[in-house]
Structures are given as structure tokens and as C-alpha cells.
Amino acid sequence: MNDMRIADRTVSTDTAKMTARGVQVYYGENHALKDVDIDILGGTVTAFIGPSGCGKSTFLRCLNRMNDTVAVARVLGEIKLDGEDIYDKAVDPVTLRARVGMVFQKPNPFPKSIYDNVAYGPKIHGLTKSKAELDQVVETSLKKAALWNEVKDRLHAPGTGLSGGQQQRLCIARAIATSPEVLLMDEPCSALDPIATAQVEELIDELRSQFSVVIVTHSMQQAARVSQRTAFFHLGNLVEYGETGQIFTNPQDPRTESYITGRIG
Amino acid sequence: MTDATSQTGLPGAQPRKSLHAADARTRRRNASEARFRFFGAAAIAISILALIVLLTSVLGNGLSAFRQTFITMPVALDAKVLDKSGTGDIEVMKKVTTIGYAKVIEKALTAALAEKGIATDGLDAKQISGLLSQEAAASLRNQVLADPSMVGQTVDVKLLANGRVDGFFKGRVTMDSAKLDSNISPEQLELALKMREAGLMSVSFNSGFLFGGDASELRPEAAGLGVAILGSAYMMLIVLVLALPIGVAASIYLEEFAPKNKWTDLIEVNISNLAAVPSIVFGILGLAIFINFMGLPQSAPIVGGLVLTLMTLPTIIIATRAALKAVPPSIRDAALGIGASKMQAITHHVLPLAMPGILTGTIIGLAQALGETAPLLLIGMVAFVREFPGAPPEGFFDPASALPVQVYNFTQRADPAFVERASGAIIVLLVFLLLMNAVAILLRRRFERRW
Fold first, then answer.
1. CB within 8 Å: B339 and A98
2. C-alpha distance from A214 to closest chain B C-alpha (Å)
3. Residue B6 pLDDT more than 60?
4. FRET label pair with A203: which of A93, B146, B239, B390, CA 20 to 30 Å apart?
């Protein structure tokens, strides 16, 4: 497994970008997430693994308050971004989401042109002053998402006309166009074929230089390949969190071991 | 599973049988499918037949309303009669009533008949001028007052023929029926035939039917739909301007913002109920609120428009909510995930995607409102309205009629000539409905996007 990894294991910083303490999530009566404590480091790819329904996506959606859109969801506890509580009353989720971007499981480009897809974020946040600047942002974002060469001649073609892998990279370009500090990815490769997956994984590793990346994945191989830190969730509990190599080779908790060896999950 | 186990016959295992001989069970299944398909095809055939019968009856009765018998002849506009002061002063000329013009026309008709050498034996002057519509004098007066310089000249004018004469050329009136008719005699019809041969009388396109106002019981040949078409257009304008924004805003609020609780459930149920409320109830509501309480005028397009707006709102809200629901949630997530506010996500992404559905719903609602009759009867739009309403916005408060009410009105009148006019009005109404549906389809095509 170690041979397949594409990510450098060293972590460039030890400062925590996001910290979570005692996070509880309820969906109505259902206690979906129990007492999660975690530090997401800057410049790191953190992978959340665990069986279906274990709460890893729920926790990811807490990090940019996407759970606000679910009427029955209730989040307790404390999550801080750079030391500021993101669930504070003074926080506008809109500005939070500009700093904590998100890429979804299914590629979901807007039914607009490739250009408009990427330009949308900068436009609504007023990040650019002129058309030239906006063009520049679109180009850099598409280049960072490794899509520029494939689409530079058809920027005004609809984004929905791209292949699945290209669409997902377009969604990544759209998410990074607002220069977020943390990029959340909810199983970004689950709808992609192996080649597209490899492209996205490579991309994730490159993105690490600019953002903290948090990725939810069902594939333990993917977690091992791209991440420096891995968190294992089980039945709403954060079972184990640590350096990826250690989680996969020397898990401390028997449940983690059972999961990565395929006995549960 | 091995062959051995499958042949021992576990419960639920299929017995071996030929694929070429269908068993009883399969035959029954296929027969029931064939039956269902037959019933479906039969239902469609019956509805097509009904539609054909309806269209043939409406078109057969109504198409003749678009053609009308006219008498074309030179009329000497005698200045001594029509402009007594001789100064061309319009106020003085207005004092000459239609009776004065009727005399001028009578004289002109007699002259025209004499010139063509048509014998009028046994018919007195009154009977001869009875071939003309009572409307003829009024229309000539209007023409002269519109262009006073005509006075003193001899001009060719096209005047409406009497409804019975018109009916004779359209086959509605026969020589036999004329014998029993106090309004027309066979001799007059003979004369009409001779006039047609001489080119004095002809059947041609009837623009008055589309652009003229209504006319009384006694002159069906002059009755037109102009006021009704304009009134309906005003009401549709009011409905569109009020119902579309209110309906769309209400749907967006209910669908995207409102908390899901007992109150919103109650509102939701009530909107569905309102869509099913008989339209006449909205008429009573309009009568009570807009006319009795708010004191708006009767028969006015503004009241009709408001009532129809109330009636159309539930349709638009239901259609819009369905269209909003159909937008995939991934689009909302995508926009919110980038940091768009809820309102931005809706206006930039959700609403454009829901647009085809919203527009279709709106136009269907409008089409429904266009054909609605019952509530308009209650707010006084059934009144006889001859005069055109003014230009908007003041015109919204003037009395007007509406197309479906005009149909109802025409069918209430005794003269058989109104039968073709009622059917003709139905044709106009159907054409407008078809046009609106065509627009709905076009807009749908235009805005539809795949995602």
C-alpha cells in the first residue's frame, strides 16, 4: 500500500487550521455525531474514513456549516477556524463558506459555461475589479485544477458538456477560484473512473501547498495515497486520528484495525 | 445450484417448459396487457372524435361570422341635409341624427337601384331601405363626422345589410321562413338577389366582428367582439402583472425559506384547496371586496383582473413550487458551497432552471383565466357594453366586456343571427388560447436546459 502513495508524508506545518471540540450533531432524534475532537492542520491533506453512515460526511458538512441547510440538523460543541468560533452568532455562513470551500460527491457544475462556472465565486464575492483580473483568476484556477489545457479553447461551452472527471475538476476549479483556506471534499472521486480519479488525486496533493484539504473517502487506498493525516469514524464516534502511515500500519484501536483489514465496514 | 437440486423442485423454482409454447399464466398476462392497450386506444379515439365533433360544430356555425353581407353604393352626401349651416362646423353637423342620415341613404339606395335598372315593384321605400342594417345610418354618420370634407360629394360607401338578408346569403333564412317573418319578406329577398347580381350587394370579410363593439338585439349584423377582446386583454395584463410576481415570490418563500411547521402545512393545504374552489366563489368574493367594500366600479377590467388574479394565483404557486422542487439540490449545494447567499443561489441558479416550468404554469393559469366566465358575471361584466374602454391605466376602470362573457351574452339573445356570432366568438377565444399555449411551448423550448 505504501508503494502506491503519491503524497509526501511530511506535514509542512503543525499549526491547527481548524479545531473541533466536543462536536455533537443531531438529526432530529438521531444522534449522528458524538463528541468529536479534532485538529485539522494547515497545509495538510486530512482524510476521513469509515463505513457508510459513520458520520464522516456529517462532520465535513459541519466545517463549513452546510448542515445549516438541513432543517432538522442541530450542531453542538465548538468548531474554530483560525481561533474564531464558526458557529458564533456573528458569523455569516456566506463569508465562512468563501473561506472554507467545498467539492461534492457528484460533479455539480452549474448549467452555464465553463468560464461562468469558475467566475461565479469571485463575482459574487467581489474579488476582482476588472474583466482582465477575472479572466486571470479563471485561468489560474483552471490551471491549478489541471483542466486549463483541455478547456482553454472552449471556455464558453457549457460546463455540463464535459466528461465526469473534467466536470469534477471544474468543480474543484470553481471551489478554489475564491481562494479558500480550507477545501472540503466529500468523496470527490466516487463518481469517477480510475484515470479521472488518479488525476484528481494528483491534484489534491498539489493543492496542499495552498490550502488545507479535508477529504472524505470510502476508499482506504485513496486515503493512504493522498493524505498525511487520517481520521477513522465509526458509528458517530471519532475512533482514531493520527498520521496516515501510523493509522494504516499500526492502528491503536481494535476497531480501526478491523476496518482497515476489512473485518467491519 | 446444480441440475440435481433444481429438478428436485424447491418451492418457487420454475418447472422446465418450452419457450415456444406460452403457458396459461403468460397468456393471461399478455391478454390483460392487450386489453389495457385497447382501452387506452379506445379512450383516445373517443376523445379525438369528441374534439372533431366540437370543432366541426363550432367552425361550421362560427366561420360565417367572419363574413358579412355589405351593400356598396354611391351615396350623395347632400350638404343641405347634413350640414345645415354650410360652414362645415362639426358641432352643427353633430346635430344631424341618424334619422337624417337614414333619409340620405334611402335616397341613395333608390337611386342606385334605378341606375342599375332593378325593378322594385310592390315594395315601398321603407321595405327597400329595410334591406340595410339599422346600423348603416350610424356608421355613415360616424364616417362623415370623422371626415367632414366628404359632405357635398358623392362617395362610394360600404354599408351593412340587414341581418336577415345576410342570413339569406348564408343559408340561415329561406324564402319559406321569410314568409312567416315580420322582419323580412320574400319580395325583399328577391330584390336582394337582384342587387347581388348587379354587384350592389356582396359578402366579404367582416372586420367589424373583430374590431367593432357589441350591438343590440335588433342589429345582430353589427355586433362585434372588439370591446370583449380589449377587455380580456386588459384583464390578462392585470393578471400577468399581479399574479406572476406575487405567485413566484410566494412560491419561493414557501419552498425555500419558510420553516416547515404546522402553519406552513396549513397554508400549503389551503393553497391546494383554493385551486379547487369553484370560480364563481371568487366572483362573490370579488363582488364583496372589490366592489362593495373598496368601491371599485362594476364591469371594469380592473375588478375582473383582480378576481382572476386571485383565481390564478394558486395555479401559478403550485406550478412554480413544482418547478422549484424539480431543480436538483446539487445545484443549490454547489452555489451555497462557494459562498453564495441563499437569495443568490435562488436568483442566479434555481430560478433560471425553474423558469420553463414557471412560465408554463403561468401561461396555463392565464389561459384558464382567459376562458373564465362565472366570476365575471357576478362583477357585472355581463352588462351590455358598446363603448370601448379608454387607454390604460384609466381604461382599466371603464366598463368593458370579456370574450367568454360575450359568448354567453350572444347565446342569450333571441335573433338566430347571434348563433353564428356566439360560435365566431368561441373561435376567437380558442385561437387566443391556442396562441397562448403555443407561446408556452416556445418559451419552454427556449429556456429549457439540461443539467
1. yes
2. 14
3. no
4. A93
Query: Would you list the DSSP string of B305-326?
Result: HHHHHHHHHHHHHHHHHHHHHH
Verify whether the Cβ–Cβ distance A97 to B338 is below 8 Å.
yes
Fill in the DSSP letter of residue B293: I
The H or E element containing residue B216 is: none
CB B241 within 8 A of CB B302: no
pLDDT grade, residue A1 (50/70/90)? very low
Predicted TM-score of the model (pTM): 0.81
Q: Tell me the HSE value of B286 on the side-chain side, using a 13 A CA sphere.
A: 29
Sign of the Cα pseudo-torsion (B130, B135, B136, B141, in order): positive
Joined grid coordinates for residue B263: 402553519
Contact yes or no for A108 and B336 at CB 8 A: no
Q: For residues B10 and B226, which has the higher predicted lDDT (pLDDT)?
A: B226
Partners of B157 in the β-ladder: B73
Alpha carbon distances (Å) from A141 to A104, A181, B46: 17, 14, 61
The count of other CB atoms within 10 Å of the CB of residue B147 is 10
- Tell me the per-residue pLDDT of B83-110, one tens digit each, with 9 for 90 and over: 777 777 777 778 888 888 888 888 888 8
Sequence spans of domains, chain A = 2-106+184-260
Domain A2-106+184-260, CATH class in plain words = alpha beta
Nearest CB partner across the interface for A178, out of B333, B335, B338: B338
Find all residues with CB under 8 Å of B209, minimum gap 6, and list them.
B65, B66, B68, B223, B224, B225, B421, B424
Each residue's pLDDT tens digit, B300-337? 899 999 999 999 999 999 999 999 999 988 899 899 88
Domain count, chain B: 2
Compute the distance between CA of residue B144 and CA of residue B154 in angstroms, rounded to an integer.
12
* B232 in the same domain as B86: no
Averaged pLDDT for residues A86-114: 89
Residues B416 and B351 in one domain: yes
pLDDT at B137: 86
Angle CA B133–B139–B142, to nearest 5: 160
Full domain range(s) for residue B128: 66-205
Judging contacts by C-beta atoms under 8 Å, the chain B residues touching residue A103 are: 337
Query: B170 and B275 share a domain?
Result: no
* ipTM for the whole predicted complex goes beyond 0.90: no
CATH of the domain at B246: 1.10.3720.10
Strand blocks (E) in B61-127 = 67-76
Residue B151 lies in a domain: yes
The answer as to whether B320 is a domain residue is: yes
**CA B167/CA A195 separation, integer angstroms:** 81
The DSSP line for A77-93 is EEEEETTEETTSTT--H
Whether residue B267 is contained in a domain is answered as yes
pLDDT of residue A4: 53
What H or E segment, with its residue span, contains residue B258?
none
